[in-house]
């Protein structure tokens, strides 16, 4: 089992996305969190493939997991025995805004 650490900025992004979905339809924000939690559980158990992010971010080690049902990527970097979630990024808004988080 692998440790997954979620940066504060990434946690805030997940909360904001869930709040937006909840405003659109009651219960949808909960569904977003459920999808996020399920993805993190799979990451901990090493049961989900990590796809390399495109461009320089991928070359710098950024990987992603696509959330089921929602147009969001969980952006991850690997450090020793842990995975660090650096962003919960919408797939078509502000591409690459999280790249500055790649540097420790």
What does this entry look like structurally?
Strands 1-5-4-3-2 form a five-stranded mixed beta sheet. The model has no long low-confidence stretch (mean pLDDT 90). It has 104 residues and is of the alpha+beta class. Helix content is 38%, strand content 26%. The protein has helices at residues 8-24, 28-44, 55-59; strands at residues 3-6, 51-52, 63-66, 72-79, 82-90. Helix 1 (8-24) runs antiparallel to helix 2 (28-44). The protein has three helices and five strands. It has a single domain (3-93), classed as RelE-like (YaeB-like fold, 2-Layer Sandwich), CATH 3.30.2310.20. The longest helix is centred in the N-terminal third of the chain and has 17 residues, at 8-24.
Under CATH, the topology is which? YaeB-like fold
Percent helix, as a range, is 25-40%
Q: What structural class do the secondary elements suggest? A: alpha+beta
Number of helices: 3
Distance between the termini: 23 Å
Q: Which CATH C-level class is it?
A: Alpha Beta
Total discrete domains:
1
Q: Topology as H/E string?
A: EHHEHEEE
By CATH, the superfamily comes out as RelE-like
What number is the mean pLDDT?
A: 90
Summarize the structure.
This protein is an alpha+beta fold.
Architecture blueprint of SSEs:
Elements: E1 3-6, H1 8-24, H2 28-44, E2 51-52, H3 55-59, E3 63-66, E4 72-79, E5 82-90
Parallel strand pairs: 1-5
Antiparallel strand pairs: 2-3, 3-4, 4-5
Overview features:
104 residues, alpha+beta, five-stranded mixed beta sheet, 38% helix, globular
